[in-house]
Amino acid sequence: xxxxxxxxKERIANNIVDFMVNDTPLLQESVSFIYNWVMSxxxxxxxxxxxxxxxxxxTYLPQERPILFRSCQxxxxxxxxxxxxxxxxxxxxxxxxxxHLLICDTKEYLQFEDENAIEHERSFFPLCECIKKxxxxxxxxxxxxxxxxxxxxxxxxxxxxxxWLYDLKWNRKREDE
Length: 177
Fold this sequence. Notes:
This protein has a three-stranded antiparallel beta sheet. Strands 2-5-4 form a three-stranded antiparallel beta sheet. By secondary structure, it is of the alpha+beta class. The chain is globular, with a radius of gyration of 16 Å. The protein contains seven helices and six strands. Helix content is 38%, strand content 16%. The longest helix is centred in the N-terminal third of the chain and has 17 residues, at 6-22.
């Protein structure tokens, strides 16, 4: 993703939030942003990606409260990280059960967030639900095959506060299992 202006980042972020909250149609640049995020690996994600998610997470507070998981070799100081809603997906990313398993109980995580606040300190965004909604809406903006492949990830974008997460170590799998 190339450099984009602050206004463009805000337009994309606000459109994504409006799509989830008010059923406003997604702009083509928002669709492109989501495709670009999903199709790129961690090393390809740019500051612009994280700037857009930062704006989304400040303004969006979901109603659902799932338990989220993240597998990583080392803890990251990155404020915004990808989690999954499925433990077996986190296990797939664990590199043979090594490193950390982060667990975010969003009910605990968001217990002090005011729903009526203008900005949220902690939040998460259900990206997979956004893509599902964009696939099956009146004017679909994502291909069904894209959603069917992507839903296995069940990705959530989370503003991370390490002190509010559970940090566990994976047990290494034995070779005979």
